Amino acid sequence: MLSTREAYGLALANLGNQYDFYVLDADLSKATQTVQFAKKFPERFLDMGIAEANMMDFAAGMSTCGVPVVASTFAAFAAGRAYDQVRNGIAYPDCNVKIGATHGGVMIGADGGSHQCVEDIALMRAIPNMTVLCPCDEFETYACVKAAIEYQGPVYLRFGRMPSPNIYTEGGFTFQIGKGTVISEGEDVTLIGIGDMVSRCFEAAMLLAKIGISAAVIDMASVKPIDEKLIISFAKRTGCIVTAEDHNIIGGLGGAVSELLVRNYPIPVENIGIQDKFGKSGSPEELAEYFGLTVEKIVEASKKVIGRKKVIQ
Amino acid sequence: METGYSIDKLKAIAHDIRVDIIESLHCAGSGHPGGSLSIAEILSVLFFREMNIDPEKPNWEERDRFVLSKGHAAPAYYAALAERGYFDVNLLKTLRQINSPLQGHPDRRKVTGVDMSTGSLGQGISAAAGMACFAKKENKKFRVYCVVGDGEMQEGEVWEALMASAHYGLSNFTVLLDNNNLQIDGSVEKVMSIYPIKEKVEAFGWEVLEVDGHNVDAIIEALAKAKENDITPTFIICKTIKGRGVSYMENQAGWHGAAISDENYEIAMKDLNK
Q1: Of A49, A51, A64, the CB nearest to B115
Q2: Which residue among A163, A227, A246, B32 is the one 20 to 30 A from A5 at the CA level?
Q3: Is the pLDDT of residue A313 over 60?
């Protein structure tokens, strides 16, 4: 069981054998784990110092010469501080840059609100040309990093700090940009999660089963483009949905799922996520409790959304 | 693929670039004449003598790169590209119009010959540094040129890029500063002084040269000197006049971004064709 950031570092180091790409970091290579690539391929690693704006455009410029470039820092600095550089320097010119953003969400722990990015998915998702991926475990992380390197164009990858329980097994699944993965089938409610919340959705489904509620679980690592077909088919089947993310409920996975359902097949939706608040210091589990990112909250939301379904019918 | 044009020819091309700038901005009804006119000689020298480029092979991997970090001077850039043969000069009349590839600020996806999209100040210099770094890493022979505005030097990212370029010894990187000393709200000194610029950039580890940015010979000489330096990147302060060549625009901050009326167009053409 690894954190997705550790899996990200390992993936870069591993994929560096197969693919020709550069990795840039802004003095956080130990935290982002790009250090694993740096050790193995020092000639293709550049530390850009604590200067994220320059790093993003520098990466874009390199990429125009015909090589994918990965630029890494914390989500708060990648999507936040360097937003304009990501927008105008990377996405607008459609540059082949992969933004490896670690420490997304509040469950990074004690660093506090300044470092807990709760709006990066919303920011990145709203930029044209941008693909947004948020894997849930080490195996999916490897697959997402590989898919991002193979894809021509800008990709934002979001990773967590703490170890994530394994959902998949090595080589046990395939990942495709634009496709979600059904973790378990169900008939009464569909739980859609990203990142660390996928395992919590899975645990919630097991608790719900004990009280006779059949919950489907979907891992939507490809937040953008999102798997509309899969979501609509489960919306039709189960009639209600709960989304779960370590991110603001505004503009993230919950926003994406709600938007597409309103347009295509309106049904009751409940969003588990940060309720439009900044983060704070604490242990990851204390923070999960404080911000309502728990299995219990997903169970509660499931019951509630099933209740709303009956009212609407 | 240098053209080897004579000094007189390069001066004549700078004149043609100015005429194109006025024509295209007059057609567009908006845009940035002042800072476009100030870089006509710089672009003439770069595109017709200095840079190893080939309009027939705009994506040639070994070509020298150019980034217009002060992207609002796009009319000058488009004029240089058109005059150099990247596209039909008549296209310049479509500047800023719907369906035209000639966007208000350069878009690499739309215009043949544009190596990097720019417009948000401070970003082009970083992208250009990235290109130069790639060439160093991959032992490529190409050089990278970047034109930066003096008002643009107020962006913190410019200094990040200066720091990184010196740190990585990007001696294949030359920045030309369009030092016309005017920005939208007034003189650079008054709005937010960047001076002393020479000392500051030198302190960041660059070789700094100063030239008259309207003197073709001086620009050529400085670029040659930059090529001789194989240790540090080179920063050429080009002293220029905003609105150069058009009487009522010269040294007028108000002509940073303004529409050219029919009457003003006539005067500008007379001034340029004196």
Answers
A1: A64
A2: A227
A3: no
Assessment of whether the complete model's pTM goes beyond 0.90? yes
A 10 A CB-CB count for B263 gives 8
Q: Where are the alpha helices (DSSP H) in chain B?
A: 7-28, 34-37, 40-45, 74-84, 124-137, 156-167, 188-192, 197-203, 216-228, 262-272
How close B157 comes to chain A (CA, Å)?
A: 6
Q: Decide which of 3.40.50.970, 3.40.50.720, 1.10.150.320, 3.90.190.20 is the CATH code for A4-158.
A: 3.40.50.970
Rounded to 10°, the helix A138-150/A4-18 angle is: 40
Spell out the CATH class of B7-272: alpha beta
B61 vs A: CB within 8 A? yes
- DSSP H or E stretch at residue A242: strand A241-248
Residue for token pair 């100030």: B38
Same fold, A4-158 and A181-312: yes
Contact (CB, 8 A) for A126 and A156: no
Catalytic residues of A: 52
| Chain B residues close to A51, C-beta within 8 Å | 157, 160, 163-164
The single residue listed with the structure tokens 């300044």 is A114
* B187-195: Cβ within 8 A, 24+ apart: B187/B253, B188/B150, B188/B151, B191/B151, B191/B154, B192/B154, B194/B150, B194/B153, B194/B154
Query: Are A65 and B163 a contacting pair at CB < 8 A?
Result: no
Q: Which among A51, A54, A62 has CB closest to B134? A: A62
Q: Do B130 and A56 touch (CB under 8 A)?
A: no
Domain residue spans in chain B? 7-272
pLDDT (tens, 9 = 90+) of chain B, 274 residues, equals: 456 799 999 999 999 999 999 999 999 999 999 999 999 999 999 999 999 999 999 999 999 999 999 999 999 999 999 999 999 999 999 999 999 999 999 999 999 999 999 999 999 999 999 999 999 999 999 999 999 999 999 999 999 999 999 999 999 999 999 999 999 999 999 999 999 999 999 999 999 999 999 999 999 999 999 999 999 999 999 999 999 999 999 999 999 999 999 999 999 999 999 8
CATH number for region A181-312: 3.40.50.920
CB contact set of A103 (below 8 Å; sequence gap of 6+): A5, A31, A74, A75, A76, A111, A115, A116, A117, A159, A160, A161
Which 85-104 residues of chain B touch chain A by CB within 8 A? none
* Block residue for tokens 């670039």: B17
3-state SS assignment for residue A249: coil
The mean pLDDT value for A248-259 works out to 98
- Radius of gyration over alpha carbons of chain B, in Å? 17
d(CA A249, CA A274): 6
Of B119, B127, B160, the CB nearest to A60: B127
Q: How far is A248 from chain B (nearest CA, A)?
A: 28
Cβ atoms of residues B17 and B87 within 8 Å: no
